[in-house]
Amino acid sequence: MAETADYLASQIEASPSQKIALYGHSMGAILAFEVALRLQDSGRIEHVFLAAARAPIATTDDDDEAFSVLESAGALTDRARQILLEDLSLLATYPGRPQTEQLKDQVTVLYGRDDPVVPAFNSALWVSWCSITPRLVEISGGGHLFHRANSEAFEVVQSVLSPDTHLHPVSSGTVRF
After folding, report:
1. pTM
2. Which residues, 6 or more positions from 176, have their beta carbon under 8 angstroms from its beta carbon?
3. Residues 6+ apart with CB under 8 A from 2
4. Does residue 75 have a pLDDT over 70?
5. Which tens digit of pLDDT belongs to each residue from 131-171?
6. CA distance linking residue 63 with residue 138, whole number of Å
7. 153 and which of 16, 84, 131, 147 could share a cystine (Cβ 3.0–4.6 Å)?
8. In a 3-state reduction of DSSP, which class is residue 68?
């Protein structure tokens, strides 16, 4: 995980974009968090979106259960199954982060009301890893893959990054993990 986050952070640092937003879903949220930690003092991060993810603690055997839940829901194609297994393998090596290693940037945590993999209380734990209290947004329907079931997650991201809100617009888009 550290090598992947280091690589992605270096690629972002080399990009011409002045401001970026990071969006990570499930294991990708842990990766987005790790990349954001590496870039947070650069002044380039506009916002970090962490979706359908547990807080950055060491992983447990719950990941086997997560795979079973997603597979039994029939939500996985053969390619999605392969990617999920690779993600879980990478996540199994993640040592977690102490709560003292906090993200200083603006964060929105999105969680699914009916997510069988990451219950709402797990998503709320992200507060302990953020120096600025994150915005917690419940997404209705869609289970763990709520971003595929409806446009609500996209609409949240769009509203946060919109120049019509109190936040500044992002000039270069969102990097997804």
Report:
1. 0.81
2. 23, 24, 25, 28
3. 34
4. no
5. 999 999 999 888 888 888 788 899 999 999 986 654 443 33
6. 22
7. 147
8. helix
